[in-house]
Amino acid sequence: MNIQVGIGSFRELEYYLREGARELYCGLEYIPSHVEGAGNFASTAQILKAAAVARAAGAKMFYAANEVHAGLLEKTADVIAELAAGGVDGAIVKDLALLDLLKRRRIKTPLILSTLSCCLNAAALDFYVRYGVKRLALPEQLLPAEAAELVRNRWDIGTEVFLKARECCRNFNGLCFLECHGKNTTVCKKKFSLERRAFVMPNFTPAEHLAQLHDYYALGVGTLKIGRSPGSEISRLIFAEGRLLLELLHSGQGREKFTAEALRIRAAMDKAYAKVEGKR
Amino acid sequence: MMELAVSLTPPEALCAKPGLFRKYSRVYIGSSFCQNLLPEAADVRRLRAAGARAVTLATPPLTGAALKKFLRTLGQVLETEKEVEVSVNDLGLLAALRRRFHGRAVPLLGRPVSHDFLRMSPEFLKKFFSEYGIKLLESDEGKMVENLPASTPLKIAFHYPLEYLAMSRLCAHTGEMSAACRRACAGVPAARLTRPGGESLILYSNAYFRRNAPCENKAVKRLVFTPCDLK
Hints:
The structure holds two protein chains of two kinds.
Chain A: E1 2-7, H1 10-18, E2 23-26, H2 44-56, E3 60-65, H3 73-85, E4 90-93, H4 96-104, E5 111-113, H5 122-129, E6 133-137, H6 144-151, E7 158-162, E8 192-194, E9 197-199, H7 206-219, E10 223-226, H8 232-250, H9 255-279
Parallel strand pairs in A: 1-2, 1-10, 2-3, 3-4, 4-5, 5-6, 6-7, 7-10
Antiparallel strand pairs in A: 8-9
Chain B: E1 3-8, H1 10-15, H2 18-23, E2 26-30, H3 41-49, E3 55-58, H4 64-80, E4 84-88, H5 91-101, E5 105-109, H6 114-117, H7 122-132, E6 137-139, H8 142-146, E7 156-160, E8 162-167, E9 191-194, E10 201-204, E11 207-211, E12 220-225
Parallel strand pairs in B: 1-2, 1-12, 2-3, 3-4, 4-5, 6-7, 7-12
Antiparallel strand pairs in B: 8-11, 9-10, 10-11
Helix pairs in contact in B: 3-4
């Protein structure tokens, strides 16, 4: 399993390359790419420059355009064509109309299907393979046993999983239309009252998430994905935690031992997160 | 003429009074939001026996196991039904309908995936709907549907009184994600989730909603009512 990290600036690019990242991805300010508040590059020229820097360091750079926007459809395809021609290693997409347009325009670049597409079964993956998808970011709302048919697929499609113990929506992320504009407006994490009882939208526990990470690793998921965060210091911590967890996974521990040790790492990291959160 | 339909989960259909089916020309059975509420062939038989004139099978995004289960059910339903509508929220299912049940299972593009499709280019939608034989796009977004241009190629089934906002496979009633579901939601009416000074949501059938009202636009060919007992 490799690690992939989202970036939004040359400063972050240099930092993560120095830290050993071999896969990066980024967005462009004027093409929607889902994450609100995270940094994006201002121009295709900047992304091409960043991709060249990554390539020189032996790393890959992907471009994220994972929203649906009819008005920007042609423009998005143009951007992907330009970036592909300029050496960017692939695009992260969601919009079926965009996939169709890229196919019709014969724009050849490895396509990663965004986790937002909610591709939950092998028949759905087959559907997307026909549009040229080469890699799949596994939906968050899928258990490892359920994901087995996607990970061990017959098309040799690679798979990615987010470090869900740190970055995971409580609801289907691609099908969630609750107001969500940053940490303080994340409705899904708020405490509600339901007929005078407290109600919080259910979520997995950290131990469950970490045990699932072990199972994804055992299944053969190729990439651990660290998302773009509005706070670059938070992203760095998640990346650091991801690397520690990967080292632990590579050491070959069983599920229970891994989870216990991973929880210890998490507890230690929690203090660092709290420090950063306190500063923000 | 506007078609009027009613939407029920299987546990709700079991408790429904037969008079309900006479009021509507079509019954949706199943759930667009939870794969533990998939309809079974026996549900369809019961609905028909109780007087339902036409049936639509509602389905959510599906795991591989749930997809297999539903395709088996569909095969059984089509042993007695000449044709049946399927409200689809999974592109794997959509492809399977075309491959295995073409002409007999008529797909509708369901909520919530229709949210994205409603925002896709009309040219693409026209081609895609024709390729997969999609009869209607289902929506509950009043503003989006009201503002569809007269030239839209879309035909809409509009759902009310609940506008979808979010769903999870983690059950809102038990907190679990499990195939061994005991249907804790059965018989539970829609309930308001409130926060002091904050937004209010409606919890129903393991998804979160806000209230909406029937929408008027020439593109709306069907109104689908969910009797969720919302106070």
